[in-house]
């Protein structure tokens, strides 16, 4: 028995040793992710991929922004500025764009590069990255970015679906530091398109080494490198010591040692962790806490004044769309489709300021101008939209043939299942009732709702539009007749020849920004008069941060830029 006891004792000691080693390894990973100089935030919906080819969700884009760079990027004022490309030109036809790359951009160190560990980014990487997006095998959600724009991209994609090879005709490597891209037709916002996550640059070696697992073994050029990812628990990134950017004084960026992203699903738990100091930032204040945290104007109150609140108007607008084409299912019996005065009356009857103050608690800006949000280049305060004017609404209602709503059938408005969306709609339902307009509200699951919108099955519906890139074209494209749904974003099916001609003219890249913006502003005035939308509010971004966090900013693009963030201990 004594001999057996010794044997088992040795076994137990061995097991304990293994456990301690394992705990030590876990602890070291935890320390890396939770050090004092690590920026910590939470993502309630989780992250499914770190591959730019599938970077379509905000959480993925925020993490990817730390890992990757594109040829160009957006600054705080929504201007396109250099990144991996130091400069660019466009020829007199507006078709051929030529980019010159920086000489000092290196990929993150990774086993994919063998003994050398890393290498410099060259023009061939740009060509590879863009062709990878267009390759059917990649199954990228970003096909639309290049398919109809770069010469030969559509044909390349078609060949790849059939197992073919080759290259995209319009992308040429001129030398290691220069690449040219030829478009099918002039497209002024092309630079803005290139700021999108789908256009981040990746190395062929890493994609080929990890294959289908590249999504969880990311290799880029960004300020932080991949360290650890435990799904549903934590994603940890560490500082990239070879990052090519410097601060204004010539100091190396980033300042932080790392970034730790947790995946707590419950927003109440997330907020409690923020209060405990375990998180450096929260972006969604749980509705249960909002009345205590924010005033009706959206400012911090009480004990929450110890934190800092960053706010900005998002490149996003909330609205109720109205189907205008009476040959389609949703508009066949709609009194709204062919009655501009009725649509205008509904716009004047909405008290947007009241919605923003009492329901959104400042997380929105009343849409009293046009289609473009205040932080979008080209926004013009002189474009006047709809103010709250119930008297004018009643006058227009009478002109529309429905004095005080008499004879007007009950309108139908469909929404997704969001609680806030429902609260806003109920408030507007009451406001419309005050001028004699009766509205029936229906809420359905959002995927079903979106499908019905795109297939023209609704009279009137709630949705929003968030800019994919910081150019007015991305918003005004919703009113170009050739972009009609279900294949395009023109879900109201508005068809106006003047709008079409203005939209086409503004695509000329040889026009100055002022000239282009003037064309878009003229489009906005026509849209406001036609009223295919009930304008509600421009979304607002809120970020609540710890007082120790310095250098974090917020802008309309809702970027999460951490390369210039510092943390001051002891605060």
Summarize this structure as a short list of keywords or feature phrases.
571 residues, single chain, alpha+beta, disordered N terminus, five-stranded antiparallel β-sheet, Dipeptide-binding Protein, domain 3, Dipeptide-binding Protein, domain 1
Main sheet summary: 5 strands, antiparallel
Radius of gyration: 27 Å
Q: Low-confidence parts lasting 5 or more residues at pLDDT below 50? A: 1-31
Count of β-strands: 19
Which bin fits the share of residues in helices? 25-40%
**Secondary-structure class:** alpha+beta
Q: Give the CATH level 1 class of the domain at 314-540.
A: Alpha Beta
- On the 0-100 scale, what is the average pLDDT? 92
CATH superfamily of the domain at 314-540: Dipeptide-binding Protein, Domain 3
The CATH topology of the domain at 314-540 turns out to be: Dipeptide-binding Protein, domain 3
CATH architecture field of the domain at 314-540: Roll
Q: Shape from CA axes?
A: globular
Count, helices: 17
Beta-strand proportion: 15-25%
End-to-end gap: 60 Å
């Amino acid at each position: 028995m004594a001999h057996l006891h010794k044997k088992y004792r040795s076994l137990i000691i061995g097991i304990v040793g293994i456990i301690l080693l394992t705990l030590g390894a876990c602890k070291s990973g935890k320390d890396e992710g939770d050090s004092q100089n690590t920026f910590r935030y939470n993502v309630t919906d989780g992250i499914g991929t770190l591959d730019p080819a599938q970077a379509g969700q905000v959480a993925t884009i925020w993490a990817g922004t730390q890992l990757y760079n594109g040829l160009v990027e957006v600054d705080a004022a929504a201007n396109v500025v250099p990144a991996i490309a130091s400069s660019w030109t466009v020829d007199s036809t507006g078709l051929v764009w030529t980019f010159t790359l920086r000489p000092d951009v290196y990929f993150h160190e990774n086993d994919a590069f063998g003994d050398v560990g890393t290498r410099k980014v060259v023009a061939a990487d740009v060509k590879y990255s863009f062709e990878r997006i267009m390759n059917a095998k990649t199954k990228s959600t970003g096909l639309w970015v290049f398919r109809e724009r770069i010469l030969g991209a559509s044909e390349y994609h078609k060949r790849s679906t059939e197992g073919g090879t080759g290259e995209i005709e319009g992308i040429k490597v001129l030398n290691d530091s220069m690449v040219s891209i030829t478009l099918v037709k002039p497209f002024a916002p092309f630079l803005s398109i290139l700021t999108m996550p789908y256009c981040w640059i990746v190395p062929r070696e890493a994609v080929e080494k990890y294959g289908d697992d590249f999504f969880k073994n990311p290799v880029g050029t960004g300020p932080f490198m991949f360290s650890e990812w435990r799904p549903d628990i934590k994603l940890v990134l560490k500082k990239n010591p070879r990052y090519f950017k410097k601060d204004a004084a010539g100091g190396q960026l980033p300042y932080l040692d790392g970034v730790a992203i947790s995946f707590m699903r419950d927003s109440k738990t997330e907020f409690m962790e923020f209060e405990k100091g375990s998180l450096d930032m929260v972006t969604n204040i749980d509705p249960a806490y909002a009345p205590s945290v924010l005033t009706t104007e959206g400012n911090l109150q009480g004990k929450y004044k110890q934190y800092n609140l960053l706010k900005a108007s998002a490149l996003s607008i909330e609205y109720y769309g109205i189907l205008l084409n009476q040959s389609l299912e949703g508009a066949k019996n709609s009194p709204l489709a062919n009655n501009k005065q009725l649509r205008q009356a509904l716009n004047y009857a909405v008290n947007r300021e009241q919605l923003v103050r009492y329901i959104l608690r400042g997380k929105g800006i009343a849409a009293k101008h046009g289609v473009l949000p205040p932080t979008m280049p080209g926004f013009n305060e002189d474009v006047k939209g709809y103010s709250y004017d119930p008297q004018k609404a009643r006058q227009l209602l009478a002109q529309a043939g429905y004095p005080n709503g008499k004879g007007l059938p009950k309108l139908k408005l469909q929404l997704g299942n969001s609680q806030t969306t429902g609260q806003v709609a109920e408030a507007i339902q009451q406001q419309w009732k005050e001028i004699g307009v009766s509205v029936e509200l229906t809420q359905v699951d959002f995927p079903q709702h979106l499908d019905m919108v795109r297939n023209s099955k609704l009279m009137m519906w709630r949705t929003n539009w968030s800019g994919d890139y910081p150019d007015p074209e991305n918003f005004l494209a919703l009113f170009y007749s050739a972009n009609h749904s279900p294949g395009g974003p023109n879900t109201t099916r508005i068809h106006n020849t003047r709008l079409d001609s203005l939209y086409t003219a503004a695509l000329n890249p040889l026009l100055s920004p002022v000239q282009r913006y003037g064309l878009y502003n003229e489009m906005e005035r026509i849209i406001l008069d036609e009223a295919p939308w009930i304008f509600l509010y421009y979304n607002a971004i809120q970020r609540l941060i710890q007082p120790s966090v310095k250098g974090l900013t917020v802008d309309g693009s809702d970027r999460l830029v951490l390369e210039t963030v510092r943390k001051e201990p002891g605060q």
